[in-house]
Predict the structure.
Amino acid sequence: MKLYYAPGACSLSPHIVAEEAGISLELEKVDLRTHKTETGADYYKINPKGYVPALILKNGELLTEGPVIVQYLADQMPASNLAPPPGTVERYRLMEWLTFINSELHKSFSPLFGSGPEETKDGARTKIAKGFAYVDGALAKHDYLLGSTFSVADAYLFVITNWATLMKMELPANLAAFRKRVLARPKVQAALAAEGLTISS
């Protein structure tokens, strides 16, 4: 399988999941400004949506959207325990977290990466802080979002916390401890190294 990624973008989440699951992926970097891949291909012809991640499956099909890709990867290696079995209440809890991270946190960062009005950015920061407070409350009870076991939702949340530190946003205590915990995982470090990233706690 081939993963199209941009260093440090949300595509880092499936990259981490693949490392944790022991899945070997071919990687191809995408320049999101020019929409060219590192081999010179027009990324729009690979993924018409134009953003990462995109995963080419073994049968040649294209799979997009990070929350879907991480579940697909986890299901290829059920023994990795990165996602609860399909059909269980725990699996729906995982999807609940993935949806929250995607809609309430990930998308809220969009104004901060652009050059829009400061008022819009302030609104985004307020919304992110509110979302972080909710997550912080959940992490007061457990090391990870689903309890004591690292899941694909944690990989996604970790990426979001990296964006927050990049933007000089202070993380609540439990969320900051979570970020440090995930950063210390050897497979997370392997994914960061493969993307040429050096991230400190």
About this structure: The longest strand covers residues 26-31.
